[in-house]
Amino acid sequence: MPKTSTRLLALLSLLQARRDWPGALLAERLDVSARTVRRDVDRLRELGYPIAAVKGPDGGYRLDAGAELPPLLFDDDQAVALAVALQLAAASGADIGEAAARALNTVRQVMPARLRHRIDTLRVTAVDRSDARVDSAVLTALSAAVHAREVLRFDYTPATPPERADPPPRRVEPHHLVTRAGRWYLLAWDLDRDDWRTFRADRITPRTPTGPRFTPRELPGGDVPAFVANRFRGSDPTGGWPCRGEVILDLPAAVVSAYIGDGVVEELGPDRCRLLLGSWSWTGLATALGRFDTDVEVVGPPELRDAFAHLARRYAHAGDARRRFPVDGDPPGRGVAGFARDQQTR
Q: How many alpha carbons fall within 13 Å on the CB side of residue 154?
């Protein structure tokens, strides 16, 4: 490769590495004169790279964004990271799978043989676990509102039919656009409900224009991933579960510790331990404790003991092939149990 071409690639790589470069420092890094740097900058400009001159005591250069995308330069690790990310894009929930595949093919074609070999050995099959694809235009509109800090109005299709045939649009202060388990969500402050809400992006139809600018509110806890995770599992914004119970299990503490997540276990003996655990409901907590397949002594509270009694009746009925319906005195249920009870009272 001619020396000039090699130097141009080195200069372009440096300009992509940081925002501003003093001319003298570029000349020092490339081991050339300041005049040579100016000529090489002009050559890159002729190739379509928008390089701006930076005024100041030292002078310098900056690689700006242009109207068109010029050829890009990646080091080996960046190229591999880009290729892997493009392979995973199909499972992101955004409707960009086809575009990502074409981009990957373009990137792969211009890679040297050694990098193509690395990419081919890192082939990833992206399994799309989401049945909800989001139009990229919707994601762009939501992201723009978050960035501009402008009130967003949108029509929302909930999981269950709304009470009104034509519900009013939602008005929110968009805070973050997040992805979880192959779905995209908008985390926002709902102005009409005066509370934080998460909205599925595939159910959002943005309205234009956006509303006035706002000063972002402080998110409880300040950690977006933690806040969203707590909301999905039903706990409060600080990470605490709404239902917490204490039990004693006839198992070693080391065995229990491997399966309790954010629970607290205390060793009481070689084959006995105390466990403090939380869940989104008392029934869910009792079910989680039942998976240890050992004797359980409930320390408290009474709600947990009642949940165990409720599950005991339910499981007893499920194991009795002669019974078709719950007995009198069972708490009301939902789903199939509620349907069966309705049939019995007709």
A: 25
pLDDT in tens, 180-213: 777 788 999 999 999 999 999 999 999 988 989 9
Beta bridge partners of 245: 277
198 DSSP β-pair partners = 187
Joined together, the tokens standing for residue 203 give 């159910």
Reported residue count of the chain is 346
Q: How far apart are CA 291 and CA 306, in angstroms?
A: 18
Alpha carbon distance 236, 295 (integer Å): 30
- Please choose, from the candidates 258, 175, 166, 260, the residue with its C-alpha nearest in 3D space to the C-alpha of residue 224: 175
| Rg, C-alpha atoms of the chain | 30
Nearest to 177 by CA among 162, 187, 167, 192: 187
Q: What are phi and psi of 126, to 5 degrees?
A: -85, 115
Q: How many Cα neighbours within 13 Å face the side chain of 10?
A: 15
Inter-residue contact 74 to 28 (CB < 8 Å): no
Consecutive H or E run containing 128: none
Highest mean pLDDT, choosing among 71-85, 132-146, 165-179, 322-336: 165-179
Q: In what order do the strands lie in the sheet with 170-180?
A: 195-200, 183-190, 170-180, 152-156, 204-206
